[in-house]
Specification:
250 residues; flat; Double Stranded RNA Binding Domain; three-stranded antiparallel β-sheet; single chain
């Protein structure tokens, strides 16, 4: 797929130096994929904090992340439909929600050493951004989006399934980290005929190292707060607190 001239000019601002080329080739060896265009792969690793520090018209990986999220959802849905015809739609939704989650994607990213190659700003680097689940998961989606543009659906399908079929098997064997937001919503709908409501009660720290505190309100009662480096993480922790208390799970 051809990139328009305007986009190519933006990519040129993220020039792949000989040293960076060696790093990107190493990533390809680790992940067992091959890009025709290393500038697209380099862009997939370019976090917003890094792009902002460069000044000018340097692009970040957020558009590739958006594309990769859609491609990922399609491939996982297709795989579940073909490989597990005996499962019902609710099972598909439950498995998919875990497999495309921040938790699962960040683990897959670590396995192929994405954290070693991300381009992040100095503030994010100092605050441990290279190991943050949200940044790893987003970068994984951006790599998927870039690979789709570079090499097409067939190659991208193989890459996604190589990375994430083990996560699907974890869910089927009930060995995965539980998605407490989904569990809580199902429990509350069944028990109270309503939905949990998440409320940010506090935010602390600078922008590059923000900590969120979130409570969950259910049927007039408040549970938590849970805390996390982003709202999703804090909501998961709050949901876990509420679910364990309401369901009696230890």
């Amino acid at each position: 797929m051809m990139i328009q001239k305007e986009d190519q000019q933006k990519h040129n601002a993220l020039r792949v130096t000989p040293e960076r080329k060696k790093e990107l080739l190493l990533f390809q060896k680790t992940s067992r994929i091959r890009f025709r265009r290393l500038d697209l792969l380099n862009l997939a690793f370019s976090h917003r904090s890094f792009a902002n520090e460069q000044g000018g018209d340097v692009e970040n990986n957020e558009k590739l992340e958006f594309l990769g999220d859609s491609v990922l959802g399609l491939i996982i849905s297709e795989y579940l439909y073909i490989e597990y015809p005996h499962l019902v739609e609710g099972d598909f939704a439950r498995i998919k929600s875990f497999v495309v989650s921040e938790e699962s994607l960040s683990e897959a990213a670590r396995r192929i050493k994405v954290d070693n190659f991300i381009l992040i700003g100095k503030g994010e680097e100092y605050s441990g951004g290279r190991n943050k689940k949200a940044i790893l998961a987003d970068c994984m989606e951006a790599v998927i989006g870039a690979y789709y543009l570079d090499s097409g659906l067939k190659s991208t399908r193989k890459f996604i399934l190589d990375c994430l079929v083990p996560e699907i098997e974890k869910v089927l064997e009930n060995k995965h980290k539980k998605d407490y937001k989904t569990l809580l919503q199902e429990y509350v709908q069944k028990s109270y005929k309503t939905y949990p409501r998440y409320v940010v009660v506090k935010k602390t720290g600078p922008d590059h190292n923000r900590l969120f505190w979130v409570s969950v309100v259910i049927n007039g009662g408040s549970y938590g707060p849970g805390k996390g480096r982003n709202k999703k993480e804090a909501e998961q922790e709050a949901a876990g607190i509420a679910y364990k208390e309401l369901s009696g799970e230890s």
